[in-house]
Amino acid sequence: MTTSSPAAAPATAALTHADGALLRNGRPHRLLAGSLHYFRVHPGHWADRLRRLAALGLNTVDTYVPWNFHERTEGDIRFDGPRDLAGFVRLAQEEGLDVVVRPGPYICAEWDNGGLPAWLTGTPGMRLRASHGPFLEAVDRWFDELIPRIADLQAGRGGPVVAVQIENEYGSYGDDHAYVRHVRDALVARGVRELLYTADGPTPLMQDGGALPGELAAATFGSRPAQAAELLRSRRPGEPFFCAEFWNGWFDHWGEKHHVRPAPGAAETVGDILDEGGSVSLYMAHGGTNFGLWAGANHDGDRIQPTVTSYDSDAPIAENGALTPKFFALREKLTALDGAGTPRPLPADPPLLTSRELPVARHASLLGALRATARPVHAPLPLSFEELSLASGLVLYEATPLLPPGHHELTVTGLHDRAQVFVDDAPVAVLDRESASFTVPGTGARVRLALLVENQGRINYGPLLGQGKGILGGVRVERRLVHGWTMRPLPLDRWTSRDVARAAAAAPSDGRAGFATAVLSVTEPADAWVALPGFGKGFLWVNDTLLGRYWEIGPQTTLYLPGPLLGPGDNTLTVLELERLGDRVTLHDRPELGPPEEYVETFD
C-alpha cells in the first residue's frame, strides 16, 4: 500500500483541541486512561480487568499492539484467540470505555525486542526505526494488515477508538523525523481519522527527537508534572497538557529488587497532573504477566538486565485483578473530579485456589532430553538464533575439540546471553556476557563440549535494540577456533503439551536437572501462584501453556497461574529445570514478588 500525504483530521474526530483545551465532541474533556495490555492478560480475564479499570474512575483504556505477538513467523499474521485485538476493543466499549491504541511499530513496553519481530531485526543489514527502505517496507506491510482493523473501530465509525499514537517515545532513540512522518502518514493513509499524538520524555532533547509539527505532543514521566506542563506549553502553547504515561509503578529485572511506588505519592502526583488541567494515562493500571518467553530485557552498558515474568508493576490493579491500596488512593482523586459522575461499583477480588504442596516426579535428564527432542543442525562454526530461525528459547551447541595435555582456557565470543557448559556431560561452568571464559583440562583426546545457551529476553529499549542471540562470535581453545558444531534449536514457547510430554519421556532421569512433573487436581478452576522451592532456574508449563521463566535469584519467587488455564480434574505442571531439581511444587494464595525497593525516576 502506498502512503499519501496526511490530511487534516476531520471535524468529526471524537477528540480535538482548541486554545489549550482537550475537547470530546466539542465539549471540554479529560482523558483519564489506564494502560492494560490484552497480550499480558488471559482472554478469559479481559472483561473482568476492563471492568476493574472502569471502577478505578477511568474513562479510557490504552494498549500497545506488539507486532511480534501477531506475526511470529514472517507472513503469518494472526488476530485470533489471545491476539484478538478487535475483540478486546469491543469489550472495552461494552464497559463504556474509550480506547487509545498505540500500534508502534516499536512499543518498548519491556516486551521482547520492543515488539519488533526477530525475523525482521535479524535480517542482515537491517536498520531499525529509521528511513531505511527495507524497514519501512516491512512496516508498511504490517500496517496494511493492522491499521484498517483499528480504523474500523474508530469512534467516527461507531467504535471506541478515540486516539492513536505515532511510534513510541522516538525522541529517546533517534532524530529521524522523516521516519516519524512516514509512520504518521502510514496511519492516515490507512484510514486513521481520530486524534494522533506523539509521546516522549519531558526534556527538550526527547521532545525534539519525537514530536511532529501539527500533531499533539504528549509527555511520559513519573514526577514533576508542573515542569513537564511548562515545557510542553512553552513549545506548544495551543495544545492541552497530556501525560501519556504516568509511571505509578515500575517493572523488575532478575537479580534486583521488586520496584514499588507508595500509593500516597502516586496519588499526589496524579492530583498534581489534574491540577494542571491535564489528562493522564496510568502506566500501568493493570500490569498483567509476561507469559511464555515474551519478557524483554534492558542493558547497562553491555550487561543484560532480563525482565522478570511478572509485570505486576506495583499497579493499582494487581496481577490477579485484586484491588490494591493504590487503587483506592487513585480512585479517590479521579472520582472527585467535577463531572466524574457516580463511581462504578467495586468488584470483588477474584477467587483463589487453596495453598498446597504437590509432589514432583522426575523424568528425563537435561542433556539427554534436549538431544533427543531437537533436530540437529550442522555447521563449521556456531550459528546464531537468527541463523537457526529461532526467536527465543534455548540452543544446545556441541562440538568435539581435541585438547592437548594440560589446562586450556576456552573463550566464548559474543555470548548472548547465558551458557551452561558441559564437558563429557559433566557441568563445568556457567557463562554470561561479562564472564565468557573457563578452563578445561586436556589429555590429548577429544572431549564432548556442550554449551546450552539461553536467550534471556531480547533488548527492548535503547541503542542495542535488535541485538542477536546465541553465540555470535565463536569458541576458542586459547587462540584456536573450535570447528565442527552441531546445534539443536529448542523453541520452548512453541511446544504443545504433546511436545513437552515427549521431551520429558525422552531419556532416563539423572536426578540433577531436566524435566519433572506434578499433578494439580481441582474441582473448580481458580487463580493461584506457583513456587518451586529447591529448584534453580528454568521454565514452567501448565497443561499446554508455557507460564514463564523462574529463577531462584528473584526477586519474584511465585508465578501467577490464571484460573482459565486449568480445567476441572487433573492438570499437569511440567518443569524444565536447567540446574537443580527440587522435590515439590507449592501452590499459594498470594504472590511473593520479592523485597521491595522504591522506584526513583531518572532520565538518561
Automatic annotation (TrEMBL):
Domain Beta-galactosidase galactose-binding: 517-571
UniProt-listed Pfam families: BetaGal_ABD_1, BetaGal_gal-bd, Glyco_hydro_35
Domain named Glycoside hydrolase 35 catalytic: residues: 22-335
Top-level class of the enzyme under EC nomenclature: hydrolase
Molecular functions per Gene Ontology: hydrolase activity, acting on glycosyl bonds
Keyword terms: Glycosidase, Hydrolase
Superkingdom of this protein's organism: Bacteria
Occurrences of domain Beta-galactosidase 1-like first all-beta (ranges): 382-490
InterPro entries: B-gal_1-like, BetaGal1-like_ABD1, BetaGal_gal-bd, Galactose-bd-like_sf, GH, Gly_Hdrlase_35_cat, Glyco_hydro_35_CS, Glycoside_Hdrlase_35
Catalytic activity: Hydrolysis of terminal non-reducing beta-D-galactose residues in beta-D-galactosides
EC number: 3.2.1.23
Family: Belongs to the glycosyl hydrolase 35 family.
Classification via PANTHER family: BETA-GALACTOSIDASE RELATED (PTHR23421)
Protein name: Beta-galactosidase
Organism: Streptomyces lienomycini
